[in-house]
Amino acid sequence: MHSLFAPISAPNSEFHQRALDRQLQLTKPPGSLGMLESLAIKLAAMQGRDQPQLNNIHISIFAADHGIAAEGVSAFPQAVTAEMVKNFAAGGAAVNVLARHLKAEFEVIDVGLLAAVDLPNVIAHRAGCGTENFKTKPAMSLPQLDIALAAGQSAVHRAVAVKAELFIGGEMGIANTSSASAMAAALLAIAPSELTGAGTGLNNQQIDHKAAVIAQALQKHQKYLDTPLAILQYLGGFEIAALTAAYISAAQQGLPVVVDGFISSVAALIAFKINPDCAAWFFYGHRSEEKGHKIVLQALAAEPILNLQMRLGEASGALMAVPILQMACRLHNEMATFTQAHITIG
Ligand SMILES: O=C(O)c1ccc[n+]([C@@H]2O[C@H](COP(=O)([O-])O)[C@@H](O)[C@H]2O)c1
Ligand SMILES: Cc1cc2nc[nH]c2cc1C
Questions:
Q1: Helix axis angle, 262-274 relative to 176-188, nearest 10°?
Q2: What does the record give as the active site (predicted)?
């Protein structure tokens, strides 16, 4: 049995109840802190402690190239994937700024760029030189899928080794919204046109072309798309496979996760279809502007923390939500109770 199917424990129900009770004793009308209350309660149960906290955050950005880029489905050239990896390594990307703000541990993993980059602070865990064009061929072989899955698991092991309290995965890969849209369409049995969006900035005509390419691919591979892992193999990307395994692995180790945008949420959906108990360990950072995100979030029964009209990827939306989670913890831990404040509630 693949380790992805190994069991996942539920968050601690005793600490869930204790946190729920405490929220009712804090000096506020019950429920008045809205989602901040449920976030703190959920985290207390995940961490198995009365005082949830998020001081030690681990960020892993998985990058890979996509053969489907040859179909003209992205507003940006494929070379940008490697260029952005260099930018991540140099500290100049949005995710670097947010990681510095949060004093988070940050790493970039090359799971399969077209050509390896020779940089000391880029971890090479390569499944290949980009995926195949999934319009005509399976995106990857089974051995390649295994390497990409292992890349995600290794990242979580590194996070656990430094006692991370939160795992945030991100992705970078030109054309990966095509891959994610195809996977979501296959997983949810929805027409590609219903979830295919602008990605990095396509116009409406280009979006129609992208949806048509995805529809052709789904037709071509239809008879093989019968399990979540087959969908990952035929339509996925190395970075999406890595994220999928990372999410499951984090849940198996009791490490809370914040899921980022559209592509990450599709990885979360695949993870959920592989090992459904993992979803109890997920927070959802934001609702992306990408068209299909709403549908994928619905399928996960997910309530994202933020809606900032972002559509960047690279974990940026997940990182923006971390201060909200941190403040939810502080409110939960530091507010006075009615008894402490000598307030009579009748
Ligand atoms: O996270 C999102 O919701 C999101 C939405 C649109 C685009 N992206 C990012 O843009 C790239 C994919 O867009 P595209 O148009 O090349 O398929 C990839 O590097 C993603 O990180 C990310
Ligand atoms: C510039 C750029 C930065 C990104 N970060 C994540 N996806 C991206 C796509 C592009 C095109």
A1: 40
A2: 314 (proton acceptor)
Is residue 170 in contact with ligand 1, taking CB distance under 6 Å?
Answer: no
In Å, how far from its chain's centre is CA 229?
Answer: 17
Rg of the chain on CA atoms, in Å: 20
What's the fold here for domain 57-324?
Rossmann fold (3.40.50)
Active-site choice (171, 239, 290, 314) = 314
Residue among 97, 177, 200, 260 whose CB has most ligand 2 atoms within 8 A, to mutate: 200
pLDDT of 199? 98
Alpha helices per DSSP H over the chain: 13-25, 35-47, 79-90, 94-101, 142-161, 176-188, 192-195, 204-221, 228-235, 238-252, 262-274, 293-299, 316-334
* pLDDT value of position 258: 99
Q: Hey, what are 32's tokens?
A: 């008045």
CA distance 198 to 73: 9
CA distances in angstroms from 160 to 76, 182, 253, 339, listed in the order given: 35, 32, 8, 38
Q: Tell me which amino acid residue 146 is.
A: D
Assembly ipTM: 0.99
Q: How far apart are CA 170 and CA 313, in angstroms?
A: 7
Domain range summary for the chain, segments of one domain joined by +: 57-324
Burial class of 136 by CB neighbour count within 10 A (0 to 12, 13 to 18, 19+): middle
* Residue 245 neighbours by CB distance under 10 Å: 30
Q: Identify whether 314 is a catalytic site residue.
A: yes
pLDDT under 70 in the chain at which residues?
A: 1
Strands of the sheet containing 105-112, edge to edge, are 122-124, 105-112, 57-64, 166-172, 257-259, 282-284
Classify 111 as helix, strand or coil.
strand
Query: With contact defined as beta carbons under 8 Å apart, do 166 and 42 qualify?
Result: no
Ligand in closest contact with the CA of 95: 2
Burial classification of residue 340, based on how many CB atoms lie within 10 Å of its CB (0-12 exposed, 13-18 middle, 19 or more buried): exposed
Which pLDDT score, from 0 to 100, does residue 1 have? 65
